[in-house]
């Protein structure tokens, strides 16, 4: 799992393969350094993304609850129906608006993040 802050202020997270607890040990401090204020987030699920190990799923849920106020709008880009369902199921955990976009609509996801209301922008 990688994370970077782009020049436009969007936090770009890429997840591929199966996420493990060890990845969160590295990811969480990097996220905390970059998310000093609520920022729009683009989460790109790679073609090999298969989800989480059980321990990583628990860690992800903890992370979501602990950091939910550090997210502006959240755009999730993927290509599987279960990823869309997962986005819809986890949306109530976040005060920020969250949407799923098909990979073919990745530019729509970025446009949506850029058109966030002023209070959601970095």
From TrEMBL:
The lineage of its organism: Bacteria, Pseudomonadati, Pseudomonadota, Alphaproteobacteria, Sphingomonadales. Transmembrane segments: none annotated. It comes from the Bacteria. This is STAS/SEC14 domain-containing protein. SUPFAM superfamilies: SpoIIaa-like.
